[in-house]
Structure formats: C-alpha cells, structure tokens
Amino acid sequence: MKPATLEPGRLSAHDRILLTAHDLFYRHGVRATGIDLVIAESGVAKLTFYRHFPSKNALVLAVLDHRHRRWMAWFTDALARHRSRNRPALEALVPALAEWFHDKNFRGCAFLNTVIELGGTLPGVMAACRLHKQDMTAAIAELLPASRQRKRQALAIAIAVDGAIVHAQFERDAKASLKALDGLLHPYFG
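Now predict its structure.
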C-alpha cells in the first residue's frame, strides 16, 4: 500500500493535515510524532490545524478512520486481482499480502501499532482497531466456501495474518512470514 502523495494546492488543508499525519504516524509512530511536525510538514498554520482537528487525539482517530477505509479498499482490490477462477479463492490472500509486505514503506499494521502504542489510553482507538480487524476478517471469510465454520475459520486465518504482519515487521523478512502463512493456509485450499 503506497503512502499518500501530497500535492500542495490540489488538496484542502484538512486533507493535507490528514495525509501528512497518516504518513508520519505510520512511519514514526503516534507518540513520536508531534503536532508541530504535522503542522510544518503539511504546510498549514497552527490555527488552521486546530480549526480542523481540535486535538491530537481527534487527529489520531481521523487518521485511523482514513487508514481503515484506504487499507480495506486496497485489500479487497488486491484479493480480487490475485484471485484465479481455477483455484480456491483463499489462494489470493498470500500474494495480496506480499504486495504490501514488499512495499518499501511497510511498517506493519497501523492498527496493531497504534494499539501497542496507545492501548486504552485514547477512547476510540480500541473501537477503531476492532472495526478494522472485523472488516479484514469479513473480507477473508468471503474467500472461504460457505459453511457453518466459515466465521470461525476466517477468524483463525485473520489471527494468522496478524501474526505474519508482526513477524514481517520485526524480522524485516517478508518471505519467511509469507511462506509460513501459506503453509498454514494449505489445508483450507481443498
């Protein structure tokens, strides 16, 4: 998933702030990124920043909402692109994730990273992260054949995906993470 490109003059101040914060939070972390840096990098005045986002907390929640919509759009598109008519739909999962894991800007799951950084200290963060993981799990469930176990299987696969994300992030070796995930998924391929 590529970072957003900022084209001054083409984006509103709100969008410049949001996209700048999105990229900085993902690259450096929420706690390590101060509001002054977001203001400077987005090219807005402090008053303009606070007119759009009354606090850093409000900005964090807006960034998570933006990230969720953007990532889910990419994810469902990547699954569709890697899906083959002659193969089980679930086989699209590893190649889709490989796109993301091999991106030079990959720094793991923004939602897992934010939960680790902020935990329950910011109301709304846990809810935003739960929503993201539920929607990711639902997208995975769509790859599985209809059955009574479909939801349970999709949750197990989503948990394995989260493990592969974390492993690829801290080992900086996407190949090993993807190979392990692929091995876990083979029983589901039929």
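DSSP finds nine helices and no strands in the chain.
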